[in-house]
């Protein structure tokens, strides 16, 4: 591992954001402030059915801003869906994007912004700082507490032909403003609450042990772990409790600020590989991998993992065991095999994970064989 020095140069990028009850209703006002005349409202059918896209639409109408809805988006958004959205963006002569939903609509909206303004295939922007054209103004309204696409400089798009996830990392796709309202979280089903919560925890843990962490990202990562581990089980028990939902949203915000600037690690690299090959829930993939990656990485960042373990608590157990116990209390008790992953797929999964940009900041330089062993442990 590269020794950290707090004097190392680091930058910290964050969007403007407003948190609190009623934030969603500010969409129209901010669209007008950004000079949006014709908005592409990017969402998905579930969020539409729950009424949250309609609430944003009402706010736009009240502010006198026209919009076109684009909701043809699946979980793990595909590059083809991004390109269809970009065509609609251009055909409708939009000059701004508002996205309301979880990580999938938000990532897709970021992709549409890039593809719509550059008129190029979204898959050509894979990697770090490859977006050179300015993207349209973007307002994000998250309806889950996990992906943190609403504050991050990341967009994850699935290349459906090669069955792999492509990470696009660029300051250009940091939203212009995010409106963080706890109310939309109250309609999340239990499983989505659990999975997105484990995504938050994975973001915070990976950012805290990342080779690119800094004193600024550390503060946010540790606060995210504290908030999430105390609020998530209670929020699951009381899904309509706005205070608890807001705590999980704040945890996601802190984790997002941490990982957007410190990047991630092997958990996400391996989850991207799994999600691309098997179209599994991103948060669930992280949940099934996190403790195994922590155990494999422990020697490279033991002080940091011990600090994480101390926050979670759990007697005479290792930090990885404490995360495993936490996961079980949320009802996640299966393994990768139960999710449909086959042993003979592991070498290909490991090769894709090894090449993922998130692997660069993992505290331990994992070999392909070590990655295979971690998949095997999680099987
Ligand atoms: Fe994630």
TrEMBL record:
The keyword NAD applies. Residues 193-378 form the Fe-containing alcohol dehydrogenase-like C-terminal domain. InterPro entries: ADH_Fe/GldA, ADH_Fe_C, ADH_Fe_CS, Alcohol_dehydrogenase_Fe. Keywords: NAD, Oxidoreductase. The keyword NAD applies. Residues 16-182 form the Alcohol dehydrogenase iron-type/glycerol dehydrogenase GldA domain. GO terms for molecular function: alcohol dehydrogenase (NAD+) activity; metal ion binding. Belongs to the iron-containing alcohol dehydrogenase family. PANTHER family: ALCOHOL DEHYDROGENASE, ALCOHOL DEHYDROGENASE 4. This is Iron-containing alcohol dehydrogenase. It comes from Methanoculleus formosensis.
């Amino acid at each position: 591992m590269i020794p950290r020095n707090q004097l190392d140069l680091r930058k910290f990028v964050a969007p403007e954001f407003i948190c609190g009850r009623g934030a969603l209703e500010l969409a129209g006002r901010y669209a007008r402030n950004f000079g949006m005349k014709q908005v592409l409202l990017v969402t998905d059918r579930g969020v539409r059915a729950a009424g949250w896209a309609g609430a944003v639409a009402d706010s736009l109408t009240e502010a006198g801003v026209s919009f076109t809805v684009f909701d043809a988006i699946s979980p793990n958004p595909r590059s083809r869906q991004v390109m269809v959205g970009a065509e609609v963006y251009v055909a409708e002569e939009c000059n701004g994007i508002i996205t309301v939903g979880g990580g999938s609509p938000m990532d897709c909206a970021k992709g549409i912004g890039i593809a719509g303004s550059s008129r190029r295939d979204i898959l050509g922007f894979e990697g770090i700082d490859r977006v050179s054209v300015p993207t349209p103004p973007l307002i994000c309204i998250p309806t889950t507490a996990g992906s943190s696409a609403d504050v991050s400089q990341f967009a994850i798009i699935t290349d459906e032909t090669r069955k792999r996830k492509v990470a696009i990392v660029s300051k250009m796709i940091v939203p212009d403003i995010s409106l963080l309202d706890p109310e939309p979280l109250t309609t999340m089903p239990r499983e989505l609450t659990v999975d997105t919560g484990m995504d938050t925890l994975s973001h915070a843990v990976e950012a805290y042990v990342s080779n690119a962490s800094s004193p600024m990202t550390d503060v946010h990562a540790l606060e995210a772990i504290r908030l999430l581990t105390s609020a998530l089980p209670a929020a699951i028990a009381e899904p309509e409790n706005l205070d608890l939902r807001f705590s999980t949203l704040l945890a996601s915000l802190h984790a997002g600020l941490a990982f957007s600037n410190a990047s991630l690690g092997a958990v996400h690299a391996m989850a991207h590989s799994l999600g691309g090959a098997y179209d599994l829930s991103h948060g669930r993939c992280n949940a099934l991998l996190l403790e195994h990656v922590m155990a494999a990485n422990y020697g490279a960042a033991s002080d940091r993992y011990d600090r994480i373990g101390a926050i979670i608590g759990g007697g005479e157990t290792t930090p990885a065991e404490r995360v495993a116990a936490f996961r079980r209390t949320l009802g996640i008790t299966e393994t990768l095999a139960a999710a449909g992953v086959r042993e003979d797929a592991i070498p290909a999964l490991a090769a894709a994970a090894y090449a993922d940009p998130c692997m660069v900041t993992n505290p331990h330089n994992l070999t392909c064989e070590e990655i295979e062993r971690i998949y095997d442990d999680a099987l």
